[in-house]
Amino acid sequence: MQNETVIVLDFGGQYNQLIARRVRECNVYCEVMSYKNDIEKIKAKNPVGIIFTGGPNSVYDENSPHYDKAIFELGIPILGICYGSQLVAYSLGGHVATAPVSEYGKTEITTSDSLLFKDVDNNTIVWMSHTDYIDKIPENFKITAYSKDCPCAAYENAEKKIYAVQFHPEVNHSVQGQQMLKNFLFNVCGCKGDWKMSDFAKRSIEALREKIGDGKVLCALSGGVDSSVAAIMLHKAVGKQLTCVFVDNGLLRKNEGDEVETLFRNQFDINLIRANAQDLFLGKLAGITEPERKRKIIGEEFIRVFEAEAKKIGKVDFLVQGTIYPDVIESGAGDAAVIKSHHNVGGLPEHVDFKEIVEPLRDLFKDEVRQLGIELGLPEKFVWRQPFPGPGLAVRVIGEITEDKLAILRDADAIFRKEIANAGLDRSINQYFAVITDMRSVGVMGDGRTYDYTLALRAVTTTDFMTADWARIPYDVLEKASNRIVNEVKHVNRLVYDITSKPPATIEWE
Ligand code: XMP
Fold first, then answer.
1. Which residues lie below 8 Å from residue 38, measured CB to CB, with a gap of 6+?
2. Closest ligand 1 atom to 431 CA
3. What are the DSSP calls for 163-226, one per residue?
4. Which of 149, 334, 357, 507 is the most core-located residue (most Cβ within 10 A)?
5. Regions of the chain short of the pLDDT cut 50
6. Which residues are part of the catalytic machinery?
7. Cα separation of 233 and 216, whole Å?
8. Nearest to 407 by CA among 490, 483, 481
């Protein structure tokens, strides 16, 4: 059975993935499709609603994206957002012009009677970001909201089920934006909200079972959320026909290798090969200080080790990839078959003999992958794991990587993570870890002078990891972590907290 589907028609705006996520949060399945897809492709999806997204252009620019006007005749409800709302006006005989006053940021609008504004206050705050505005709406439409500088903040033709808003209901700053989206989905499109993770899991597992038959499946397991959930899906589908290869490169966090092994081998009873390649990696990295060189070596070695293990298994039919929906969207709005450019693992192995790739998470956003993980019984600790870079601790040991420095870093990092969790900050801070710098300085301990390492603590909040802010951790939490680290970890006598945002710094130190 197919889920009711909403199409998010992508005109290139920055919040387009967010719109899709918001729709899914209402338990309505949706797909992002570029405006470059013709109307037949959209019709083939049999959507119950279409949302036109924002975009960076002006509708009257020569090269701005437009859409086949036949879309307005399909009888499918449409919601235009920002650029999308201007495009609806422009396409149906209205007029768009440069606004005398651009609006940017939180703006109060006044709404009037509309299905879109059911259970929404008459005066409500929304997020505006536009320099053009609609100065004439199409015939048979009515204005349903305005702001001080925008006479047409929303307009509609309820009979034709065409709605449009100049603002962005999908961003959090639009206080009742989610209610408006819900109104569109449930009251205008008549959605039932049938997108449930438990059904998705059941159906996907059945589909995987059918596709794979009695074939053999190989999965590179890192212990991260995506590869863990993908592996469990496959295991539920085909059991022992799946083999997971977990490469221990010696650059994992404290106890991590053993935890991954215990969980997947003992708890889930998955065929797991743990390749203990610690010495190999550290040998190759000896004396290397240049960050990109470290990354390259680790990527190459990973492939080599993985291929060697795969060779032992022999020919496989399927290789599992943990591609998730944002990767699919970013690579061309769901059209192209994509393979995640996994800087994690340095690309796809070239010498593994397989027929086909399976991507069980291809339709899911990251938060849905976590939900699915919970559904499948993955322990919370794994479900909520913070992102960990493929090169592991190598990019958190500044300068040469040695066993000694790694041991110091592991202990300090474990303490910091524990204190963040104790303070209940582990879900609100998106990434947090320790770094061992290549610097030593003088300290005093008891009666003696010390000359030991300086470690840095790094913690950031971010939504996309492209930009990030340093986390305002309460001083007492920092104090506790710092005290514990210098007292409990030998060869550390100084802690600093990194207070740079990204940009100009990066999240990792290397
Ligand atoms: P930066 O340091 O570039 O990191 O601000 C952004 C995000 O990417 C992760 N990261 C990596 N992940 N291989 C990975 O798989 C890498 O080489 C790598 N470098 C950075 C980093 O942890 C952060 O989440």
1. 68
2. 24
3. EEESS-TTSTTSTTHHHHHHIIIIIIS-------HHHHHHHHHHHHHHHHTT--EEEE--SSHH
4. 507
5. 333-346
6. 82, 168, 170
7. 14
8. 490
Cα 388 to middle of ligand 1, angstroms: 8
Distance 432 CA to ligand 1 centre (A): 12
Helix (H, G, I), strand (E, B) or coil at 437: strand
Residues 191-228 have pLDDT tens digits of 999 999 999 999 999 999 999 999 999 999 999 999 99
Nearest to 6 by CA among 45, 42, 50: 50
Strands 78-81 and 95-111: unpaired
Atom of ligand 1 nearest to the CA of 510: 2
| pLDDT tens digit sequence for 92-113 | 999 999 999 999 999 999 999 9
Q: Is 506 exposed, middle or buried (0-12, 13-18, 19+ CB in 10 A)?
A: middle
- Cβ atoms within 10 A of the Cβ of 343, count? 12
Rounded Cα distance between 43 and 48, Å, is 10
Terminal CA-to-CA distance of the chain, rounded, Å? 48
Q: 88 with 78: CB under 8 angstroms?
A: yes
Q: Which of 252, 301, 508 to mutate to test the pocket of ligand 1 (most atoms within 8 A of CB)?
A: 508
Find where tokens 């940017």 sit.
Answer: 104
How many other β-carbons are positioned within 10 Å of the β-carbon of residue 422?
12
Contact at 8 Å (CB) between 19 and 51? yes
**How far apart (Å, rounded) are the C-alpha atoms in residues 28 and 24?**
5
| Selection from 97, 94, 116 nearest residue 169 by Cα | 116
pLDDT tens per residue across span 457-492: 999 999 888 889 999 999 999 999 999 999 999 999
The token pair that represents 443 in the structure block:
């300290």
Contact by Cβ (8 Å): 221, 260:
yes
3-state secondary structure of 330: helix
Name the one residue in this structure whose structure tokens are 């997947």: 264
> At 414, phi and psi to the nearest 5?
-65, -40
Percent of the chain with pLDDT strictly greater than 90: 90
